[in-house]
Each structure stands twice: as structure tokens, then as C-alpha cells.
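input
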Amino acid sequence: MTPRARLAAAWIPALALVLSWGPEAMPGWQERRYRGRTEYTPLIAAGDTTLRAVARGASSALLHPLGCDPHGARLEWRWRVLAHPEGADPGVRARDDRAAGVIVIVRRGWFPWSIRALLYQWTPAAAPGVWSRSPYSGNVRTLVLRSDPADSTWRTEHRDLGADLARAFGETPESIEAIGVICDADNTGATAAAEFGAIRWIEGAAADTAGAGRR
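output
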């Protein structure tokens, strides 16, 4: 991983894990390349660090292993799209690209085919709330959260992770293997760009309080 793609992870005592982006490397972050390499660059503005992702006909993800129990857990993050890949449609194998995605990887056994993934994605090709299978793998479920244009406006997500995993796979797994982000444009050969804020994993009483505050 290049220095500009290095990230930082910090525990908030007892109830929350914050996966944030920073200039210094921390053990555990991994880049997974699918085709070429997405450029990931930490940016600091007004004391806040975000991650800029730019894919030019390429696709790679940044993943961090967790080993956390998703029962009762929530995920929160903010993101924005700077450029959607022209012609992309994640429902079509030959055009399966998106400007921004947050990935949750689970394992239901020790064989390679036992890995499952839930991909939250931002794409104008489908309406928010649409669930589907990846055209590349039946083990990957996708959920469209946003279809807004690339207007550089920050949006914030609050997800009940346990409930989403249960809907995706019929049950909530005992453990999360990794969480990551992706920006890809390898199938269309176009350019995609997005920016991510910190991803917060909240569990226990903190998750209950966070959920009650948004009802």
C-alpha cells in the first residue's frame, strides 16, 4: 500500500470503533486489487481527515479486518460522490462499476466459497432501497443507499448492520471478517471519484441510543 493510502484505526472505549483515515500507517489495513489500482488519498481540511478515492479504469478496495459480532451493531459513515463512472450499471456484468461502496465481509466457514459480502453502494442506475446480487458472484449482496448525482454534497448513513446482514443472507453471522471501501471503474473504463469520512461501528447501549435518537 502506498503512503497516501495509509489509514488509522482507533478504539473509542467500550462501545464504538472508529475507522478513520490518516497519514500514518496502522497495522491491518489491506489493499485488495481487482483490476488496476484505485488511488486512495487522505485529505485534511479544518482538522477533519477524509479519504479521496479516484478510479481511472481501475478497481481496488481498502479493507480492515475486525472480528466483531454484528448482532445489535450499527454502522455510520458519511460520503460524497465527485464523479460517477459514465455508463455504469452495477446490475450488468460488463458495466458493474460504482463511484462509492462500503463493503462488509463475513465468513461462514473455512472454504473460499464460504465468504459472503454485503455491499452498500451509491449508483444512479437503481433506486435507493433496491437489493440485488452481484452479477459477478451470488455470494455478494448489494443494497443501493443513494442514487443522487455527483454534486459533491456529503450524505450520512446510519445502518442496522445485523438486520441488513440477516436480510441479505437469511441469518446474522457470528463475526465480521472485514469492512472496507471501494471506488471502481474497471468495466466501463471511465473515471469514478468519491470521498469517505470515518466509518463508525457502534454496538451495545450506544447503538440502542443512536437508533432511538433517529426514530
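quick obs: Helices lie at 161-169, 205-212.
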